[in-house]
Amino acid sequence: MGVGASRRRARLRMIGASRGIEPRLPPPTPNPSLLGRGILGALAASLILAGCTTPQSQAVATTPPPAEPAAASPRVPGGMQWLYGSGESAATSIQAYHAFRDHVLAATRARPAASVVLAEGSTLENPAFVPCADKPIAVILDADETVLQNLGYEHDEARRGLSYDQARWNRWEQTGAAAVAPIPGAVTALRAIRDAGVTVIFNSNRQAANAAQNAAAIEGAGLGPARHGETMFLQGDVAPGSAKDPRRAAIANRYCVVAMAGDQLGDFSDLFNARSLSVPDRRRAASSGRFATLWGNGWFMFANPVYGPGLRGTFDEVFPADKRWSDPQGGNR
Questions:
Q1: Would the N or C end of the chain have less CB density within 10 A of its end CB?
Q2: What is the DSSP letter of 228?
C-alpha cells in the first residue's frame, strides 16, 4: 500500500469516528512490485519443496526392498546321487536281478543237494552248508537297499545334513511306508520267481515291533506278499539282536534256500561282521576260497555306497603300500 493511500484511509477513519459509524473502507490497492515478489517467492518455495520431496517419494514407491540372500541348497552326497539318481545304478541292479532270477529258475529245475545258507559251526576258513533234502525251495533277500530304496529317509537326512539315528529310523519305519520305491528290476524278478513256485522270504533288520508298517512298505512297493514270521523276518524274531544268522538258520530248517541277495556281507553270514576282522582281512575273506565262487552263483550282492560296514578303512587299509603314486609335478594338493 502506498503512502498516499494510507493517509486517505486514516482520514476516513477519523471522519467516521466523529459520526459514530465504522467507515466501509475500500480494499487496499496491491503494490505490483510486492505482489510480483510474493508470487515468485511462493513459486520458488514450492519448487524447493518439490525438489526435496519428489525423488524420495518416488524411491519409496518404485524401489523394492533388497532381496534376502538365497539360502544355499544342500548338496546331495555322492553316494546318494549314484544309488538313488543315476542310470548306472539302475542298470547295475537290473543286471543283478536278471542274474538272480535266472539262477533261481535254473536251481529250481536242478534241485540242489545243499542250501546256500551256512551251516552252524561254519568258519570263514571252513564253510559248510545246510542240506536241502526234500524241503521246498525258497530265496532270502534283505529289504533295505536290496529290494527297497529308502528315498524318504535319505532325503530327510541329506537335506538336513544329518547322520544315522536309531530313534529317527524307528519313526521312519512307523510312518514312511509311502516314501519308498522298489529297487529297479526287483518287482519283475520276484514275480517270475514266485510264478515258478519258489517262496520269497525277506530277512531284514527292521524292527519286529513295526512289523505291520514294514510289511506295508514292502507290499506297497509291489514286492509282497510279506507275512511276519512266514515270509518276512525282522530284528527281534527268533533271537534278540541284529544278527541274521539265527533267522537264516530257522528259514533253512524249513526250506532249501537256493539264493540270497543283500547289500552288505552280513546279509549272507554274520561271520563277516566279526569285530576282529580288519578291513583288508574282511575283503580278502569275501573274495577268496569258497566264497569267491558263490558271488553270482547263489549269493548276489547289490551295491550300496550310502551306508554300512563297507564304508570304513584308513588310507593304509584301503590303499596297498605298493600301489601308490605321487604326482611328479609335486605341490601340496
A1: C
A2: B
The residue extents of the domains of the chain are 91-304
CATH classification of 91-304, choosing from 3.40.1260.20, 2.40.50.140, 3.40.50.300, 3.40.50.1000? 3.40.50.1000
pLDDT tens, position by position, 150-173? 999 999 999 999 999 999 999 999
Which grid cell sits at 144? 533295505
Dump pLDDT digits (tens) for 260-311.
999 999 999 999 999 999 999 999 999 999 999 999 999 999 999 999 999 9
Residue type, 197: G
- Tell me the one-letter amino acid at 315: F
Nearest alpha carbon to residue 228 among 254, 249, 247: 247
- Measured CA to CA, the distance from residue 103 to residue 300 in angstroms comes to 10
The residue assigned the cell 558263490 is: 294
Tell me whether the omega of the peptide bond preceding residue 74 falls within 30 degrees of 0, making it cis: no
- Helix, strand, or coil (residue 68): coil
